[in-house]
Amino acid sequence: MTHNRKIASKLTFGSICFISLLFFGGNLYAQNATNGEALFKANCTSCHSMETQLTGPALKGAYDRWKKDNKMLHSWIKNNQKVLASGNVYAVSLQHQFSSAGGMTVFDGILSEAQIDDIIAYLAIYKGPPPAVPGLTPNGEPEGDNTLLYGILTLVLAVVAFVLLQVNANLKKLADDKDGMHTEEPVSFWRNKAYIAFILVVVFLVGGYMTVEGAIGLGREEKFQPKQPIFYSHKVHAGVNQINCMYCHVGTYQGKQATIPSVNICMNCHMAIKEYKGTAKLYTAEGEEINGTAEIQKLYKYANYTPGQPWDAKTAQPIEWTRIHNLPDHVYFNHSQHVVAGKVQCQTCHGEITKMDEVYQFAPLSMGWCINCHRTTKVNFKDNGFYSIYERYQKDMDNHKMDSVTVENIGGTDCQKCHY
Amino acid sequence: MEQNKHWQSFGELNNSEAFQIAGKDEFKQELPFEGAEDGGFFKTPTPRRDFLKYLGFSTAAAAIAASCEIPVKKSIPFANKPEDIVPGVSNYYATTFVQDGDVVSVLAKVRDGRPIKIEGNELSPITEGGTSARVQASVLELYDMARLRFPTMGGNEVTFEAADKGIAAALAGLGGAPVVVLTSTINSPTTLDAINQFIAKFPGSKHVQYDAVSYTGMLLANEATYGKRAIPSYRFENAKVIASIGADFLGTWLSPVEFTKQYAKGRKLEQKNPSLSRHFHFETVASLTGSNADERYLHKPSETGAIAAALLSAVKGQGVSGVSDKVKEGITKAAKELTANKGAALVVSGSNDVNIQIIVNAINEELQASGKTIDWSATVNYKLGIDKNLADLVADMNAGKVGALLVHGANPVYSWYDKDKVVSGLAKVKLSVSFSPKKDETAEHCTYIIPDSHYLESWGDAEPKAGFYSFIQPTIHPLFKTRQWQDSLLKWSGAATDYLTAFKTYWGAKLGGVAGWDKALQDGVATAAGTAITPAAGAFNASGVAGAISAAAGKKGGKYEVVLYQKVGIGAGQGTANPWLMEMPDPVTKATWDNYVIVSPKLALDVLKIDVQNAGQADAYEVNPPKKVLTVTVNGKSVKLPAVIIPGTEENTIGIAVGYGRSKNVGLAALTDEGDPIGQNAFPLASFNGSSVQYFGDADIKLEDDTYIVAMTQTHNVYTTPQGTRTEVMKEFTLNSFKKKPGQVLEDREHELKPWGGVDNFEKDGTIYPVYKKPGIHWGMSVDLNTCVGCGACVVACFAENNIPMVGKREVSRYHDMHWIRIDRYYSGDIDNPTVVFQPLMCQHCDNAPCENVCPVNATNHSSEGLNQMAYNRCIGTRYCANNCPYKVRRFNWADYTGADSFPHNQQGHISNVTMGMNEDLVRMVLNPDVTVRSRGVMEKCSFCVQRLQEGKLKAKKESRPLKTGENNEWDVKTACQQACPTNAIVFGDKNDSKSAVTVNRAENNERMFRVIEQLHTLPNVTYLAKVRNRDEEIVTEG
Questions:
Q1: Does any CB of chain A come closer than 8 Å to the CB of residue B78?
Q2: In whole angstroms, what separates CA B323 from the centre of its chain?
Q3: Which residues constitute the domain of residue B606?
Q4: B660 and B592 inside one domain
Q5: Same domain, B508 and B587
Q6: With an 8 Å Cβ cutoff, is A322 touching chain B?
Q7: Domain of B867: which CATH number?
Q8: CB-based contact (8 Å) between A337 and chain B?
Q9: What mean pLDDT comes out for the span B809-819?
Q10: Pick from B72, B80, B775: CB nearest A226
């Protein structure tokens, strides 16, 4: 028994060790792969998808295709030119197959060694897209707007009240007549001064309110959803294919304007992607179905590109998009300020762009909306070296007098932050 | 202690009635309630019915506007985006401002493909990042409506091919008659190559260089004494004593940006060990340099030779004779100082007389300047024209000996003293071609005009000094059908390559291949290998000196003499068509837009019958813009111009600026609203003495009956400071008194602020408001009055950076000038020859600002970084803020200067043509997209270039590091005025940062630091460093 117990305790110890190792190890691996997924989305999705072939090959199973050779795959990602020069057979065949794309980007210096390993870890464990969980996709009816209902109810009640008042007046007259008291014929309601005054006041108040609201809203275009020259679906690009926003909107990191991509950026991918093979059907806001391949053909028309022929970017014509987000001329807004310095997500102001086929203006873009955000948003006070010059706040934070610094605290509601 | 008064105007000097009234009111005009007294409100020009009409109309208009749909805007991206262009992000390209021999290395700020601002190139060893008003304004000339948009033949448009063909045929058909290429000074090595290549094709041809304002005298004098027809480099920074005989080296002489930079090094005062260079100035008419001198002596232009001779004899220790007593005193003093500092002394002269320049050379040789303050190792190429060459050419042309004349840069029909001869000569030339970018006076008489591209559209180079190169690269595609003139020359000489190829080949070989070429183009400057840094002496040949003395001295002038001078902004006429330069107040006279005769207070009394020391007469002269008109006749040629009284001018000498009276084709800015040329051309008053042109002469003057309006700005912004207490605004000392009592300013401030807690506790104790500390950045500016020379570069830089509207002469004369920064000019001392101080004044960004708490709509308020903010869209135009501003730095948009009104052209006829012209689409390309264009009815003022501050902060935030404001000379932010300043007089930065340049500057100069009208408890964020002059007297001015 004692012997057995010993074995048992050993077994328990061993299995605990094993299991914890498994978990710990598994966690580590999962952690790497999670990093890898993020890095993949940020750096690779402009040319690669896991499932479909874009400019570059689909990467599902690539790990196996590279014979699980971590080292070789690492050096391929890092600097494919070197691997090609070494004469690796699979690499050369890849190069041959995708020669029209002009070769893979050299990531030496862009990605660190560890980051490349993370990406490889992600490639290794990738099995397929996560199954869609039914019921989680928010596709329910929009929550009903009850204003109309309440309005009708108010009106009905008002009419009832009015009728009752009239009835009351007539009954009073009858009762008075019965009592022998002489009262005058009740004034018809349209001549009743009290009613007229009351209605005038109501009209004035409601009208005034609506005028003011209307005046404030002048020039605001929330929900503006124009028809664009090409039916470009953000859902397909940013949602399904998970292309990083900044791949196309290159100005976001650098300056004021996020910039709408030029034709040559579109053609980076669409040299290879000649037709729409996505599973999701495309619909306009009016419910009309759209042929994705025909839209790609429209792009080719602007680009002056004939599939199969070499493309001369100089002959392209710019696309006249309709501008959706307009700020007044006296407002200074800088994308890089918000995205790079403030680390604000695109979706915060532009809504769930990855689910929009046709983009609409999500936020009101009014001053109140801006200011509200500036009042509540916390700045990366400890992480960004710039804020070291705010010595007083730094001290207050260290002494726990302040737990965070908002944009307003550092002058984010000053007039001349946006108007100059 | 003697109190010496500072005064801005004659009215202030006399404490006249008009001055007292001006000090009380912010706005000079009566409020428009005309007729309100008689007959009541309903009979005023805007009666009740009109009021109701307007009300009804505006309600209807608002209703219509509200019911309109919001316009749909298009967003059109590039078809094929160039890699280095990001919309909304500026690129800076190194290039070079080149104009008639003047060279300044600059950076062009290019925003979305448009050059919008010029900044100094700090890599240049010559200008070290300095600029001038003219350099700053040159970007506007790119968008000039008067530029020629295509080549013409006989006034009709032709294609380049047709023109090339026609010119080639004409050149071939000259039958051996020589071809002459007439240019202003060319200092581009590759252009000279192109010219030589062209000339080589046509035997007997030549290249003639001609400068409108000539330096022939110097060139010939140097040839006589140093054996080189060249001008050496001057090293003002090495000079402890500088004597100038009429050389306006800070304003217009030779290379003012370079010299200002050098001069300022000697004028920078170190508090611990105070020393200054000493500057004596002898001049005839008040100039910018004379105004900055420590001691200024006035003389007649005809006496220049005598003064030079006397100074030579004095430095030789042989006594002074032949000059007036006052000048004699100056010469003795100057000679004493100069000889005491041999090897660190420099004498320069602005005279164009060979003999005078020979004497000056002899003086410099006596002072051992050569090799120390004068550098013969690098001769300069700014001005190379020899007057006689043009005189000969004009004679040849009239004799029919010239086959073809190609003109670039030079404009002899305008600037040669004998215009008629040039015109008649041009008529006899078989082929005349002008490369002028505009149809200027000479181009009008040429058969072909093949317009040259603007320098911002061109390739090129310049060699301002031997061995120092500066490069020009295009920053925009040519806007019109223009062609670089070098290309034309190469084409007509049958060269196989175009200019760009030749240019690349030339420099590729010199700079060591592609890498060297790329670096040179990126830096904008390069220095030839082996270029000496230490000054070298020249071999002096004294044989001509005695002859020169006898020829120069002993000249006698008439009773009245006239001097032609250049204005800092206008030059020899290059700035006349530029609205920015025309509206910039002249640093000396503070007059805008006009040409006038400068007279002394004495001459005003004698001829104009105005006694400026009489309060009533001074008011009549100063308050009313119309000025009396004089006719000035020299050699039978006369000009009729208004007279402006400027102290610091020799009693019986009058000054007339050249550069005015331009052709109607050079642009709206050169014309009055009636369409006549502004001013009159003064060049015909010059004379030619056989070797060089002389810019002075005896004059007859006659007072006319009529008057003419001159818009002068100095009396526009009068403080309420009572006479005698200008100490609160301007503090000035002599070096000796500063050395003796360095704590004077601190003591004064302490005394002044004592009732409110003294200097240390003033912020807290001087107010009932709470004190707000700025948590992060607290912006501040320090202006050193000692190094500020008043040149006006900052004023024009501000125009460009902040989209300042140009309001035109009529509006300026109504006190409606919109400048965000102005340079106040203060006089003190002797009214005939006063001391002058300049003080740049912009919004002081008071931490307890009087303007902020009177705004009924909170349109102006304070930022958390200490900025006094202006929210234009909130402003309703009550102007309370301006009325309550003690510094008078707020500007009101009285009219729709920017064309922002919904109804285009509704201001036509109400505002100046030139203001309307600034709103053309082409000219609006110069606007800075980061700065709102203000509309009518709103107040505006200096913002400390908040757009630049935001940009700099963002850069630091993106890089996750603290802001750099001058520590180790690293800058994230510089205001436009600071960047433009050639003397670094303006320092700007974060006051909360103990290592920022502004903090260090204030701490190191705490004994000179003061705030303007500090005791009002406005707590300005702009501080000034008191002016110290190097004079013998202990206390000259204080107050």
A1: yes
A2: 33
A3: 558-712
A4: yes
A5: no
A6: yes
A7: 3.30.70.20
A8: yes
A9: 90
A10: B72
For position B508, which CATH number holds? 3.40.50.740
Verify that B402 and B310 share a domain, yes or no: no
Please tell me whether residues B784 and B907 are part of one structural domain: yes
Total count of domains within chain B: 4
One domain for residues B270 and B183: no
Residues B563, B671: one domain?
A: yes
- Give the closest-approach CA distance of A252 to chain B in angstroms: 10
B146, two tokens = 């008067």
Mutate which of A414, A417, A418 to test chain B, going by most B C-beta atoms within 10 A?
A: A414
Residue of A312, A386, A396 to mutate when probing chain B, most B C-beta within 10 A: A386
Burial state string for B59-71 with b = 16 or more CB within 10 A and e = fewer than 16: eeeeeeeeeeeee
Task: Say if CB B912 and CB B817 are below 8 A apart.
Answer: no
Closest to A258 in 3D by CA, of A331, A340, A314: A340
Same domain? For B375 and B392 the reply is no
Q: Are B326 and B297 in contact (CB under 8 A)?
A: yes
Residue B683 counted as domain residue: yes
Percent of chain B with pLDDT over 90: 51
pLDDT digits (tens, 9 = 90+) for B764-804: 888 888 888 888 899 999 999 999 999 999 999 999 999 99
CA distances from A221 to A212, A225, B61, B696 (A): 17, 9, 22, 69
CB spacing of A255 vs B865 below 8 angstroms: no
Contacts of B367 (CB under 8 A, 6+ apart): B315, B338, B339, B341, B342, B343, B345, B346, B347
The residues in A 356-395 lying below 8 A from B, measured between CB atoms, are 383-393
The owner of tokens 């300042």 is B804
Residue type, B5: K
Q: What is the ipTM of this complex?
A: 0.83
CB < 8 Å to B864, chain A: 410-411, 414
* Angle between helix B419-428 and B387-398 (nearest 10): 50
Say if B509 falls within a structural domain: yes
Last residue in a domain, options B657, B681, B712: B712
Q: What are the pLDDT tens digits along chain A (420 aa)?
A: 334 444 444 444 444 444 444 444 444 455 677 777 777 777 777 677 777 666 677 787 788 888 878 888 888 888 887 888 887 888 888 777 776 556 777 787 777 788 888 888 888 877 776 554 444 434 444 445 688 899 899 999 989 988 898 888 888 888 888 887 777 776 777 788 888 898 899 999 999 998 888 888 777 888 888 889 999 999 889 888 888 888 899 888 888 988 899 998 898 888 888 888 888 888 888 888 888 889 999 999 998 888 888 888 888 899 999 999 988 888 999 999 999 888 899 999 999 998 888 899 999 899 999 999 999 999 888 888 899 888 888 888 888 888 888 999 898 999 999 998
